[in-house]
C-alpha cells in the first residue's frame, strides 16, 4: 500500500472500530412537597421534649424535621433520579387545600392518603410544567412512633419514624404509595440524615419496580422483598420453646442475616438431654401471603447428657422420702443433625417462627439404667424407661421461636 494512503486507511479503520459514546441520559426529576405541623405527630416525645432534644424553639420543631428531610433528599446521589424542591409558597398552597384519609395501597397496606377530592390537579400540573418534573412526591405524614411510649424521657429511645407518602407520575396517576419505616435510637433531626438517605433509597427502589413494568405477581414479589430490607444483613436474637428443639427445650439463639434469604444462627439451651449447643442455617423461600415466609433449616447440635430421676416423692427440703420407688437413668451425651421446615411471620423488626423437623443422632444410644428402684414394678419401670429414651437427643423436633432483629 502506498504510504500516502496509509493515514487514510487508519482513519477509516478507527471510524468503524471505535464505538460511538451514547449521550448521558438526564436524570428523572422528582418534585418534592414537604410537611406542615398538621402532618407531624409523635407518641414518644412531647413537642417541648423534641425542642429540647434539637436545641430549638417549639414552634420550629416540625420545620426542622421537614427541612432536614428535604435537604437530605436533594443531596441524595442517584444516577437516574434527582430530587428537587418546590418553593415554600407553592408547597403551602397545596397544603392549605389538601385533606387526608386512611387508605390502602395496591398491596393492601394501610397509609394516610391524599383525598382525591382535594387533589389540586391544576396546581400539580402547573408544578410539573414549571419544574419539568417526571414525578411529584407528596409527603403526607410523619409519625415518630413506639408501641409502648416510654415512662421517662431519654435521648436514646428506639423509635420508628414512619413516613406516609404518595408518588404521582406526570399524568397524576399514583406510581407508588404507602409507608416507609425508619428505625433509630437517636430522634434528633440532624442524626436522622442517614435514615432519610435510606428513605430516598427505598423510595427509588419502589419506583424502579413500577418502571420495570413487571407482571403483577413479579412486581409484588419484588416489592415484598424490598420491604424486607429492614432486616437485610441484620443481627437478631431470640428464644425458643419446643419438644426436641435444636438448642434445647428452653433456649436462646443469636443469628445474622445474609441478605434477606439466608441466616446463620447459633444457640444454647437446656432440656432433659442436658445442656445443648449448636449452629445452623436457614434458607427462606418466596413470600407466602403478606408476612409469611416458608423456610428450610439445617442444624448441628450437641447435648451434654445428664442424670434424671423418675418417681418417688420429696419433702419441702428436697429430701427423697421413698428412694426405693425412684428409677434413675443416664441420658447419654450425643450429637445430631436437625432438618426442619417452617414459617416465619415478620412484622417490622420482630418475627415468630413455627417449625417441625427431625433430628438424626450420631450414635443413637438409649438411656442407660443407673438404678431401677427396688420397689418399682416392671410395668412402671418399662414406662419410665420409654420416657427416658424419648429424652435422648434425636427424633421429632417441634418448636416456636420469637426473634428481634437489630437494625444497623
TrEMBL record:
Signal sequence, start to end: 1-20
Domain of life: Bacteria
UniProtKB keywords: Signal
Official protein name in the record: DUF3575 domain-containing protein
Provenance organism: Rhodocytophaga rosea
Amino acid at each position: 500500500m502506498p504510504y500516502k494512503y496509509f493515514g487514510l486507511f487508519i482513519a477509516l479503520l478507527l471510524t468503524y472500530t471505535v464505538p460511538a459514546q451514547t449521550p448521558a441520559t438526564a436524570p428523572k426529576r422528582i418534585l418534592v412537597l414537604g410537611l406542615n405541623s398538621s402532618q407531624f405527630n409523635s407518641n414518644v416525645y412531647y413537642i417541648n421534649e423534641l425542642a429540647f432534644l434539637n436545641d430549638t424553639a417549639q414552634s420550629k420543631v416540625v420545620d426542622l424535621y421537614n427541612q432536614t428531610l428535604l435537604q437530605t433528599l436533594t443531596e441524595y446521589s442517584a444516577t437516574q433520579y434527582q430530587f428537587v424542591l418546590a418553593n415554600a409558597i407553592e408547597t403551602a398552597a397545596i397544603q392549605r387545600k389538601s385533606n387526608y384519609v386512611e387508605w390502602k395501597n395496591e398491596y393492601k397496606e394501610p397509609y394516610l392518603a391524599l383525598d382525591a377530592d382535594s387533589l389540586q390537579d391544576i396546581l400539580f400540573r402547573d408544578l410539573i410544567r414549571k419544574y419539568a418534573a417526571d414525578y411529584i412526591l407528596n409527603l403526607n405524614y410523619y409519625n415518630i412512633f413506639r408501641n409502648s411510649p416510654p415512662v421517662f424521657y431519654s435521648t436514646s429511645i428506639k423509635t420508628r419514624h414512619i413516613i406516609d407518602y404518595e408518588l404521582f407520575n406526570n399524568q397524576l396517576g399514583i406510581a407508588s404509595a404507602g409507608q416507609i419505616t425508619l428505625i433509630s435510637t437517636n430522634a434528633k433531626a440532624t442524626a436522622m440524615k442517614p435514615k432519610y438517605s435510606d428513605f430516598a433509597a427505598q423510595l427509588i427502589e419502589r419506583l424502579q419496580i413500577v418502571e420495570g413494568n413487571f407482571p403483577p405477581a413479579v412486581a409484588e414479589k419484588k416489592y415484598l422483598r424490598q420491604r424486607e430490607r429492614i432486616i437485610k444483613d441484620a443481627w437478631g436474637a431470640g428464644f425458643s420453646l419446643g419438644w426436641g428443639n435444636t438448642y434445647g427445650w428452653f433456649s436462646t439463639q443469636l443469628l445474622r442475616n445474609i441478605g434477606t434469604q439466608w441466616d446463620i444462627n447459633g444457640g444454647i439451651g437446656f432440656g432433659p438431654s442436658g445442656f445443648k449447643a449448636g449452629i445452623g442455617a436457614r434458607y427462606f423461600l418466596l413470600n407466602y401471603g403478606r408476612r409469611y415466609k416458608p423456610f428450610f433449616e439445617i442444624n448441628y447440635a450437641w447435648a451434654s447428657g445428664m442424670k434424671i430421676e423418675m418417681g418417688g416423692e420429696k419433702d419441702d427440703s428436697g429430701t427423697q422420702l421413698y428412694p426405693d420407688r425412684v428409677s434413675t437413668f443416664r441420658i447419654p451425651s450425643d450429637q445430631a443433625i436437625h432438618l426442619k421446615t417452617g414459617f416465619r411471620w415478620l412484622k417490622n423488626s420482630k418475627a415468630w417462627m413455627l417449625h417441625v423437623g427431625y433430628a438424626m443422632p450420631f450414635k443413637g444410644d438409649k438411656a442407660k439404667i443407673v438404678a431401677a428402684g427396688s420397689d418399682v414394678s416392671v410395668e412402671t419401670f418399662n414406662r419410665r424407661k420409654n420416657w427416658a429414651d424419648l429424652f435422648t437427643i434425636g427424633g421429632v423436633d417441634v418448636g416456636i421461636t420469637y426473634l428481634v432483629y437489630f437494625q444497623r
